[in-house]
Amino acid sequence: MSVSIKEVKTREDLKTFIYLPEKIHKNHKNWLHPLYMDDEKFFDKDKNSLFKHNKAVLFLAHENGKAVGRIMGVIPTDYNKFHGKNDARFSFFECFENKEVFNALINAVETWAESKNCTEIIGPMAFSDKEPQGFLTKGFEEKAMLVTNHSFPFMIDFIKGNQYENFVDLVQYDVPITAQILNRYKNFNERVSKNLKIKTVEFTSTKAVKPYVKPVFDLINKTYTEIYGFTKLTEDEMTEFAERFLPLLNPKLIKMITDENGELLAFIIAMADLSEAIKNSRGRILPFGWARILWAMKTSKRLQLLLGAIHPKYQNKGLDAVLATMLFGSALKLGFKTVDSHLIMKDNLKMRGEIEKLEGFNLYKEYCIFRKNLVVG
């Protein structure tokens, strides 16, 4: 029986779309369930403000009456307007190892994008760089981390077979947290602190963090413009992002630097690796998922970098060393052994160079975002 493509329009179809990957990855030991509570909010057009100012479509593929694949198509309206582009994107692309299913899904998004007069399609990437992006190209034997794709190797062959080419490469590092690394930063940190009139800010409660949420996102909007796929956060997105991640954060792993007047100059936010807790709970918060997550926040030995930024006027002045000293100092006290860099653009040689100065670094995963020209008219 041939493959059929259906646009997701009902709640039943949306539920199938959200939960289908756990069937596709049933025997994939390194795959990680998403937090389904987050996904249910993310794909709800009434709860996710991103749907208000971008265009999006969800498709399901069926074969022999069963769902066998899914894909999301996006037209990032704000991004296109800011950059003078007319791009479409595909994301949340999952299917069994079946070329016919893969082709039917990617063709459905291409046809939809062409009907909207888009001239190029890029992916995997959704609304912005804050969602999972890229197909995994190296590190299939490694365990997945939160908010990253852990796709099958066949996805690379299938996408290239549809005339897609490499567009953006991303890398991910794992670095040991040691006293030697901390001391290296401390020595530099002392010199920086003497030369600049700055104040360091540390936290012991989530309540104390909340007044800094808006300044953090404002600084992100100033500094992330060179990152591919980044779109300035709206007030609604800031609120949604904070509501999503604040409950998962240990305030002792949030570090900030201000000037003498309290203006935010730099920050770094890390979180405990919750992947084992999420995996053991199969992405469900209830009945025991939340308890497992809380336990992992206290006992995990692996740290995951989440966000960080330095004000443009204060870059290259050593504030990164001050932040690293604070973060690694707290991490060692809390028992963390390693830190995951999250995704970094492969051509960000400056950031990669800083990481590769650290003893024991391991570039353990790579990802690729692909592109293809579309035919309009």
UniProtKB/TrEMBL annotation:
Among InterPro entries, the record links this protein to: Acyl_CoA_acyltransferase, BcerS-like
Write the signal peptide boundaries: none
- This protein is called N-acetyltransferase domain-containing protein
Q: Which organism does this record belong to? A: bioreactor metagenome
